[in-house]
Design a protein that fits this description.
Layout lengths: L1 H23 L16 H8 L15 E2 L5 H11 L3 H14 L6 E2 L1 E2 L2 E2 L1
Length: about 110
């Protein structure tokens, strides 16, 4: 019985470790035709918060978000935008109410929104 408990704890710890590692990386994907070789976190944040609408080279930036509540979206919101889901919802509610912005749209991927 003790061996089983030890193995269960080890598996739980390994699962949590792998979950944390998968959650640690955030990637932003842009079109292959985008001329911007790299974007810093501040620029990405400003684009997704509606503060700027162009890439550094002057081309139009159209942010596309994943489904609300997805782990990837939550990680991006917290790590890049510095806001929780509820903070971001309040942020966009204020901008929408004042007519100063609209949040990024989601995109359909294989018949489901991501």
């Amino acid at each position: 019985m003790k061996v089983f408990k030890s193995v269960s704890r080890a598996l739980l710890a390994a699962t949590l470790l792998f979950s944390a590692a998968a959650y640690a990386e955030v990637a932003v994907i842009v079109s292959a035709s985008n001329a911007n070789a790299s974007l810093d976190e501040n620029t990405i944040s400003r684009i997704f918060l509606g503060k700027i609408s162009k890439f550094p080279d002057g081309s139009q930036a159209i942010p596309v978000d994943q489904n609300e509540g997805s782990a990837s979206r939550d990680a991006f919101n917290e790590k890049v935008l510095g806001k929780s889901s509820s903070q971001l919802k309040a942020y966009w509610s204020r901008l929408i109410f004042t007519g100063k912005g609209t949040p990024p749209k989601g995109v359909l991927w294989k018949n489901r929104q991501i």
